[in-house]
Amino acid sequence: MRLPYNPLQRPSPPSPKPPPPLDLALLHSFPVADGWNSFIGAIRTRTTLSTVIRELAICRVAVINGALFEWEQHAPLLSEGGLSDEALAVVRDAKEETFSGAGSVAERVLSREQRALLRYTDAMTKTVTVPEEVFQELRDCFCEREVVEITATVAAYNCVSRFLVALDVGEKNHLH
């Protein structure tokens, strides 16, 4: 990491494992760490999104932004959620144009909802502006609440990945 990890820990019950590197980086500012954990905690645990949909968005953001630390934390959750190794490879290796098109690997291993989510995530992460047809495809697959939660998840994990990469948290970023 570009800064030393903060050895100070918030008062909390003893834990058998040490805090993760991201927490040790954030703990340079207790107010930031507290707000971060509250916001990201809500994104991870209080939405109606399925594990696979949430983690697909997070993992795709990690790939696009070169956040290997983020990928390594979240890709196992996709596997645990039932995403196949072949689908996981598509998420990791695909260019955005490969999420569409009859006969593509993505068409075979990802659902319509998953492909719509990945196109939306790519647009939000790469250009911020989402083309109307990409938004409409997402909207056709998800209810209004889910669209808001997907958008918040993609935005939040763009923040996370940019923090991780800028400070090189975990010392192994740059997934590309």
From TrEMBL:
Residues 10-20 have a biased composition (Pro residues). Pfam families: CMD. One of its GO terms (molecular function) is peroxiredoxin activity. It comes from the Eukaryota. Residues 32-92 form the Carboxymuconolactone decarboxylase-like domain. InterPro entries: AhpD-like, CMD-like. Residues 1-20 are annotated as: Disordered. This is 4-carboxymuconolactone decarboxylase family protein. It comes from Penicillium cosmopolitanum.
